[in-house]
Amino acid sequence: MLTKSKKLSILFADICGSTKLYDSLGDARAREIVSTTLNLLTEVINRYQGTVIKTLGDEIMCTFDNAEIATKAACDMQESLEEANEQGVTEIPVTIRVGFHYGSCILEDGDVHGDAVNVAARMAAQAKSRQIITTAESAKLLPSVLQESTRFVDYASIKGKGEIEIVEFIWQEDDVTRMSVDLSAATTNQTNPTELALHYRDIQVILNHEREIAVIGRSPTCDLPVAETLASRQHIKIELRRDKFFLIDESTNGTYLQHTDGTQSFVRREEVPLVGEGVISLGRAFSDNPQELIRFSFNA
Description:
It is built from seven helices and 19 strands. By secondary structure, the chain is α+β, with helices and mostly antiparallel strands. It has two domains: 3-169, 2-Layer Sandwich (Alpha-Beta Plaits), CATH 3.30.70.1230; 183-299, Sandwich (Tumour Suppressor Smad4), CATH 2.60.200.20. Strand 7 and strand 8 (162-169) form a beta hairpin. Helix 2 (27-47) crosses helix 3.
């Protein structure tokens, strides 16, 4: 028997309303939907180098090395399932609730035990459909850019631990924070450009007054699908407004921009005007040598 202690993020993802699925569709059809959903979640877990511990009916239990990776995987689970619903992958739309906690646990013969597991399970139980719930203790371990997307939910009583603070991670925002930008200064070298050209690999998209918006991300349904593992399904929008082009970030990991003069900037859940020429990296910093870059340039 192999036993060791380790700090991990334990995550539970639970299919919501599965009992109704079985009642309304029957065992065979409901089981197929559950299986398809769990397979999709497993693909996400593998993409983030997580470990599937076990499936428990309509629930999957997995571990990740730290809280940051668990958060990003949880967001990807929600985004991937949302896209699957839009594409009709399952017979009827399916939603999940996710809960996780980072802490010490015991690894034994492929299973995981300990207080951290119990706390993670309680977080999942606290979550509602399409929510991601974790402990404030785990949220404090996240980079500041991710902590900004958490909000207090409540206190929960955990046996042996007393009252603990729980938070929700906001993985999807309808309203992106608008940056206050001095547009006159930002457009010194850009006088009412008529076209913006976007290049990725051998694909080109031209934005102008006939086509004003492009969606870029990891999803194959995007106008520019980008093969970057750190990108969200629909990572950014670029749109033309008032004769100026804006980049609007709607992602988990943010967007990095680098101009031809070498200046760099980072955007997350905000918008900035695009000026000059340069490259865009979805979710991966330039210091990490990203390979999946989008080039942008203007035609006046």
